Amino acid sequence: MKKTIHFNAFQMNTVGHQSPGLWTHPRDNSHRYTDPEYWVELARLLEAGCFDAIFLADVLGVYDVYQGSADAALRHGVQVPMNDPLALVPLMAHVTKHLGFGVTSAITYEHPYTFARRISTLDHLSGGRVGWNIVTGYLDSAARNIGLKQQLGHDDRYELADEYLEVVYKLLEKSWDDDAVINDKKRGIYTDPARVHPINHHGKYYDVPGIHLCEPSPQRTPLLYQAGTSPRGTAFAARHAECTFVSGPSKIVVKRYVDDTRAAAGAAGRNPDQLRIYAQALIITGATEAEAQAKYADYRQYIDIDAALVLLSGWTGVDFSRFPLDATIDYIESDAGRSALASFSAADPARTWTVREAAEFIGIGGRGPVLIGDAKQVADQLEAWMDETGIDGFNLAFAIAHETMRDVVEFIVPELQRRGRYNTEYADGTLRNKLFGAGPHLHPQHVGRQVRIESPLQTAA
């Protein structure tokens, strides 16, 4: 039996996101990102299309590698201005019943103690529909603005991340017993102090002696997403992630990531099938193939090469303003994003990408494929990607807000449902319930359930 295809909507609390330049299209509405109704409309649309979640990306900095300043990013609206993604969750949760919310938060720039309270609060307010996309960050501009000279080295960030997760697990999973909240009005006891435990964490990066401030939320720990594709990132995902996200321009790149990640999960003692993998893609469709192709040709007129190179420079840490547009791209080691350039060079070993070709490719939909055609043609392509790479679904970027997502819901979802490859309704329960059907909490064998907290006496000894 072939797997069900799952969709997330890949969004950002900003203008444009993954299609630099397309915000200038007359029909694009992403400039309305500060309007609550913009997000309410999107949430209702996605739930009507049985999307698993809206996956909200984030960066806590600006893309200032290109030409050595933020001017180009500001001029072209390249993920700046940017608002906080977590603030959108209560807004969209209020108008939906099932849609999940994957929110990005970089462990490098927020203390785990305060983050744990924020994510528990969102899990309460959404009825257990929150996921956390764990990222380590890649922009030096973000590090500088919190007082660091530059971000930590690539592998050092993952060492910090492991301890960060340990602290968060202790707070969310171990600080409060399930029956700690009594809410006994007659005796005047709301919480039994004996059932609330300080975590007494003292590590290399963090000292967190106290208790979690929140009572247990529906999921306790939010559904865990991760998007690193370097060897260290893959190892981190194999240990912690329940869902992962990959961006790659070809099936070759994506399949390699899927195989490596599932193998790493197996080596870490986990069931590889318990890891759900989404690949980035952009769908351009219409009532007919001709209509879809006309939309694609129309969208291509708004690609902004400079804006695309601002993104690529930020992702890789390489200033592409220093290279002619006809120069070829080779893999360049950097501490920003090791996978961005490698994905192009690995996509088709017989092909050599130029700077211009890479910019034009990411100009619509970022580093994922663009799937064009009528409903049947796109469904065929989606099935081929699923069946040939081993992914579980797609993080769908957009070209035009909200036109792209509306087209997917109107044309693609019904076609996949007719083929028996897409859900026709949501399962009950929390986001984790809906995706895995195995209860609201982390799997009993997950590392987050295995952490232990020590008493002050044990710590002192």
Task: Give an overview in words.
The structure is a single chain. The chain is of the alpha/beta class and 461 residues long. The chain has a single domain, classed as Luciferase-like domain (TIM Barrel, Alpha-Beta Barrel), CATH 3.20.20.30. It contains 17 helices and 13 strands. Helix 4 (112-125) links the parallel strand 3 and strand 4. Helix 6 (154-174) runs parallel beside helix 7 (231-240) and helix 10 crosses helix 12. The N and C termini lie far apart (56 Å).
Rg for CA atoms? 22 Å
Name the CATH superfamily classification. Answer: Luciferase-like domain
Strand and helix order: EHEHHEHEHHEEEEEHEHEHHHHEHEHHHH
**Assigned CATH class:** Alpha Beta
Number of helices: 17
Strands of the widest sheet, in order across it, are: 1-2-3-4-9-10-11-13
The low-pLDDT segments are 333-339
Total domain units: 1
CATH architecture: Alpha-Beta Barrel
User: What overall geometry do the principal axes of the alpha carbons give?
Assistant: globular
**Average pLDDT number:** 91
Number of strands: 13
Strand content: 5-15%
Structural class: alpha/beta
Largest sheet: 8 strands, parallel, barrel
Task: Report the end-to-end length measured between terminal Cα atoms.
Answer: 56 Å
Percent helix, as a range, is 25-40%
CATH topology: TIM Barrel
